[in-house]
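for the writeup, i need someone to sanity check this before i put it in the appendix. the sequnce is what the collaborator sent (i think, or maybe the updated version? ugh). structure was predicted straight from it, no edits. if anything looks off just tell me and ill rerun, i have time this weekend
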Amino acid sequence: MKRMTEKFPVLAAVLLMAGCQSSGPAQAPNAPEQGLRVLSVSAAELGPTTHGREEPGLAEACRDWRLTPEQVERFFSLSQRYAEGSGLHQRFYFLPCRITGELQADGQRWNFAINAAATASWNNGNEIREFGCSAAECEALVLMMPDGGEAEE
C-alpha cells in the first residue's frame, strides 16, 4: 500500500479508516475452479469515488492498468474464493477502477470484474462468486494490495 499512499494520500486515508472494521468470518477454502478460460478482457473503467473527489493520479493509474487474458487467469489462480457474507470487503480495500470481461468455468459463461484493489466477482445471471487475492504474486496484477500480506484465516 506504500506506493498508493504516496500517490493518493486522501484516498489512502479514507481506505485506512474503512480497513479498521472487523475482519469478519473466515474465508471459504475454495480456490477458483480449474479449467478456467478467459474469453474477453475489456479496458479498465474508472467509476465515481466514494468521497466525491477525484484523487490526483487515480484516473491516470486506472487508464494505464491493463491485464491480458493470461494475467486474468493468473489473478484467479492466485485468488481465494470467499463465501457470501464472509467479510471480503473488510479484508480488502476498494478502488473505483475495474477491469471486466467474460470467462468460462464449470461449463458456464461468467461475466467477471476485477477491482484494482485485488478483489473480483463472477456473475452468470443466477449466481455471484466473490474472490480476493492477497498472494504476493498478485501485486504485479493490481493497483493496491491488502495490508498484512496474506488474508486472515
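Confidence is low (pLDDT under 50) at residues 12-31, 149-153. The chain is about 25% helix and 25% strand.
thx in advance!!
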